[in-house]
Amino acid sequence: MSPRSGMDIKSELQNFRQRIMNQELGPYDISAGVPIFLKEPFSAVIIPQISEIFDTRLIYVLRPFAEIEATRVRRAWGFTFSGARVIYSHMFFDLVNYRIPTLIVRFPDLIASPVEQVMKIAEFSGLKANPTTILAASNFIATHRLTYGQGNGRTAVA
User: Fold this and answer.
1) What's the DSSP call for residue 41?
2) Torsion sign across C-alpha atoms 63, 69, 74, 78
3) In this structure, is residue 119 part of a structural domain?
4) Which residues are CB-neighbours of 10 under 8 A, at least 6 positions away?
5) What is the pLDDT of residues 30-65, one digit of tens each?
6) Is position 151 within any domain?
7) What is the pTM assigned to this prediction?
8) Domain carrying residue 50
9) Helix spans in the chain (H)
């Protein structure tokens, strides 16, 4: 989506929702009650519009700006360091000004206790995760990071 008026954004989101319902983006059974997860940091700038079109719950995984910048450089993301500040600004503006259910997870806590954090995320999301699924998700987190909190600075692969 390009930066356009709020009405254009809502129209695009309605089209996106319809494409999901039409199975254009893959199989999805709305009656199953399984949530759709959108992991796109820049969606933070349109949270109010998203919540008008979708039954929305937000999960904020927070990292210090220095760690976000290290990841940005390593992955050669196109936005600048200030992009993270803009995203966080929108996230917290919406947290304060809208009544959208929100779970806040700190990245260091996710790394330190992935089982506990995955259980919180699953419960908040309404997912019925069994112990095997929770363990698999926790192992995914554990295997997709190199180090965290070691040495002079914190380094993590995220």
Assistant:
1) G
2) positive
3) yes
4) 49, 52, 53
5) 888 788 888 888 899 999 999 999 999 999 999 988
6) no
7) 0.79
8) 6-143
9) 6-21, 47-53, 65-75, 81-97, 107-112, 114-125, 131-143
